[in-house]
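Holo prediction — iron/sulfur cluster.
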Amino acid sequence: MSASDADPLARFVRSVQAAGVQRMPRVDKPAAVAPLGGATLDALAATISACTQCKLSETRTHAVPGEGDPHADIVFVGEGPGADEDKSGRPFVGRAGKLLDDIITKGMKLRRQDVFICNVVKCRPPSNRVPEPDEVAACSPYLAQQLAQIRPKVVCALGATAIRRLIETDEPMGRLRGRVFEAYGFPVIPTYHPAYLLRNPAAKVAVWEDIQKVMELAAKS
Ligand code: SF4
């Protein structure tokens, strides 16, 4: 028996895919996304690191499960790992990651380890292309289980790809910003990706508005 055969999450992912399920269903309440038996964040990370459920496993150096406080009130979800993340196995560690660090530490007055940071897909798409629908579908159960374990008060979607994949829409970012959505039973606030901010510094004003909304939701009991 291979290691992945013995892993309950890997078996679950294969079983739902074999049954033709392309996406994990959205739910109305966080409690409805029940953690798989014993699937702690560490166990999930180990499963993700060995995952071969989609073709991105063939080109990655390291899978990037995500990192941070396992009980975080705030989860940041980006699109997918880039070159620096693929090399290190850690999320948001390049130039865009440094900007996200600044948002967290200088803007929110938190530490990076106080939040949880991850991506919609856990392995780098070649040449940083947008993740394809089959890759997002294959990886979605991992994000669902991470959120079910963490049970954050709010999810901040970083960039158009992240929010479109989370709420299944093709609307442009300009129409999505400033609104609160729901995915997997958790409130989701979209904002611009830090990489976009590097190219368009004027968007920092809009991002700060969004981050303040994130902090408002996180402060609610
Ligand atoms: S992107 Fe997700 S589903 Fe695809 S191989 Fe990586 S961890 Fe597995």
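READOUT: Residues 48, 51-54, 56-57, 63, 121-123, 135, 138-139 surround iron/sulfur cluster (CB under 6 Å).
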